[in-house]
Amino acid sequence: MHDLIIIGGGPAGLTAGIYAVRYGLDTLVIEKNVVPGQIATADRVENYPGFPSISGMELMNKFKEHAEKTGVIVHSSDVRSVKDGGDKKVIVTDNGDLEALAVIIATGANPRRLGVPGEDTFLTKGVSYCATCDGPFYAGQNVIVVGGGESAVTDALILSDIAENVYVVHRRDELRACSILQKRAFDKENITFVWDTVVQEIKGGEFVEKAILKNTKTDEITEMEIDGIFIYVGITPNTSIADVEKQGAGFIVTDEKMESSVSGIFAAGDCRRTSMWQVVTAVSDGAVAAISAHEYITSVKFEN
Amino acid sequence: MHDLIIIGGGPAGLTAGIYAVRYGLDTLVIEKNVVPGQIATADRVENYPGFPSISGMELMNKFKEHAEKTGVIVHSSDVRSVKDGGDKKVIVTDNGDLEALAVIIATGANPRRLGVPGEDTFLTKGVSYCATCDGPFYAGQNVIVVGGGESAVTDALILSDIAENVYVVHRRDELRACSILQKRAFDKENITFVWDTVVQEIKGGEFVEKAILKNTKTDEITEMEIDGIFIYVGITPNTSIADVEKQGAGFIVTDEKMESSVSGIFAAGDCRRTSMWQVVTAVSDGAVAAISAHEYITSVKFEN
Fold first, then answer.
1. What share of chain A is helix, strand, coil (3-state, %, to 5)?
2. Mean pLDDT, chain A, as a whole number?
3. Residue B303 and residue A25: Cα distance in Å, rounded?
4. Are residues A88 and A49 in the same domain?
């Protein structure tokens, strides 16, 4: 039986691993992908302090090197479920069962794709799912924001301070975002709303050049010349493996110490209910979860 | 008037600056020291993901370079006080008054020193104030923990999983730490309590070699051969400049968004009430504070 099993080898999981090994815990990280972490798909990361400009892949490799040097062991498996047996947690994988005193879930989340031609082709070349991450690359340019919820409008506001023009393309004729956000967005001169409209295709050469739009009421097709498309049609956390309290699309609810509703099961990073999906918050979550897990494991060992 | 003034140019303050500038906010960072950040005094940092082993000074320089490249402006001044004027905050410095819509306080904290000969000489050479940071450098060695509060006992437990022997030197004959922590520490075979005793002097060559101890009841002087001394006699946050809700030794109370009890005044990093004083949590706090400040500033501008 291990002291601690960490599910997910992205920024949150590896940081938890680094902290746990340094605390002397017998720790195992389980990751199914060769290159883990949503961040690995980012073309440029310019907001992880210490690296002014680095590709997501390079940053992820630096995290992996760091974890390896610290002695973190990463096991390649696909986790099917986590079972709570009180002082013992059972992790069911496609390679058999594993046991640990405590578990940290750091399985991340994925933005929902629009599913239109060109979306995958132009990922990191004009297609983005995060204005906080990629907005600054579009200074003085024209961008589309797809969606009408809180994230879409929040990021449209962020982009309006950076880009020349922001076009919010929404399939309905009203927003789901709260009224304060709506009012602010309507008040911004360089934000234009394109109602009852969906993006049908994304076109370009090396980078995005235009979006093909379709009016859902009239079926009219139009083209819009554009430098970037920011897509906000939902985020799905990878949390179906664990039976703990969740919110919204399945984000794990934790306390300040990153503990879930089940004692000894912790969560860190994008799979956790939080207002941000950033590398800095993920690594912080990972460290806090490891320290809390250490405290929990010490108390379980003491009681037995 | 600036959009945002950030007080303190350590990891939390500079990260807040990087995020704020990327959000298009007119931002100013104020720092009084040439080399800011408590972390700059660390000999080795091995738990900031991406840098397996780096000196605290080098890491701080990397943060400064990153901030500079992002366009963060750092102003050298000593801040005397922050005055809340509702939609306008006034920052009183030794170089005159500055104004901003919002303020982030990232002024850090300092561990209280014992004030004995050898303590400063051997800082980073056997004297430490943080087991989470420096504990792993003492694998298989013998260390003293000075203090009897929560931090002392928590870190003695951390060290007991790494070091050969841990001696908790406490000036009283009982601990202030909670009873659960006490029980766990008493249960550990390699933790020894040295009651009614103070460290009078720290001696060594290049590194710490021994501690001179004095029994407070009998005045008896003894020597103990030792590799490291971890000191926990309190932490003082640098928060006297602001009239906001504080706790304990003066740590600023914030909500999840890093907002203090005063609207538009945020706090990030070690000066904030938190259970950890780590670089990863400081940079995360800084990012969250900047995003919250952007939201606040957008709403203030919208209302006026």
1. 30, 35, 40
2. 93
3. 52
4. yes
Which tokens is B131 given?
Answer: 């087991």
Do A140 and A220 sit in the same domain of this protein?
Answer: yes
B133 assigned to active site: yes
Distance between A21 CA and the closest CA of chain B, angstroms: 9
Nearest residue to A138 via CA among A119, A164, A118, A176: A164
DSSP for B215-267 reads ETTT--EEEEE-SEEEE-S-EEES-TTB-S-EETTTEEP--TT-B-SSTTEEE
| Nearest CB to B19; choose among A23, A47, A187 | A47
Residue A179 and residue A31 share a domain: no
pLDDT (tens digit, 9 = 90+) per residue, A255-273? 999 999 999 999 999 999 9
> Residue A299, SS3?
helix
Dist. CA B71–CA B63, nearest whole Å: 12
B270 noted as active-site residue: no
Chain B residues inside the 8 Å CB shell of A154: 295
Q: Are A63 and A106 in contact (CB under 8 A)?
A: no
Q: Beta-carbon neighbour count of residue B125 at 10 Å?
A: 16
Average pLDDT of every residue of chain B? 93
Active-site residue identified among B87, B97, B120, B134? B134
**End-of-domain residue from the set A197, A231, A265:** A231
Of A131, A126, A134, give the one whose Cα is nearest residue A153.
Answer: A131
Domain hosting B275: range is 2-110+235-303
Alpha-carbon torsion A239, A245, A251, A252, what sign?
Answer: negative
Residues B36 and B77 in one domain: yes
Six token digits for residue A175: 């927003």
Based on the fold, state whether residues B220 and B253 are members of the same structural domain: no
By CA distance, what is B273's nearest residue in A? A256
Total number of domains in chain B:
2
- Do the strands A208-215 and A221-225 form a parallel or antiparallel pair, or are they unpaired? antiparallel
Condensed to tens digits (0 to 9), the pLDDT of residues A63-95 reads: 999 999 999 999 999 999 999 999 999 999 999
Chain A's closest residue to B283, CA to CA, is: A280
> Which one of B130, B284, B295, B302 makes the best mutation probe of the A interface by having the most chain A beta carbons within 10 Å?
B284
CB nearest to A161's CB, from B19, B24, B53:
B24
Do B17 and B163 belong to one domain?
no
Contact across the interface for A49 and B69, Cβ inside 8 Å: no
Identify the residue among A63, A281, A292 best suited for mutation to test binding to B, counting B beta carbons within 10 A and taking the highest: A281
Domain harbouring B261, CATH code: 3.50.50.60
**Separation of alpha carbons B107 and A63, rounded Å:** 28
Among the candidates A231, A255, A290, a domain finishes at: A231
Check whether residue B215 and residue B195 sit in a common domain: yes
In tens, the pLDDT along A177-225 reads 777 778 889 999 999 999 999 999 999 999 999 999 999 999 999 999 9
Q: Is the dihedral of CA B245, B251, B252, B253 positive or negative?
A: negative
> Is there a single domain that holds both residue B29 and residue B118?
no
Contacts of B302 in chain A (CB under 8 A): 183-184, 187
A51 min Cα distance to partner chain B (Å): 7
The interface residues of chain A toward chain B in range 119-138, judged by CB-CB distance below 8 A, are: 132, 135-136
Work out the minimum CA distance from B192 to partner chain A, whole angstroms.
17
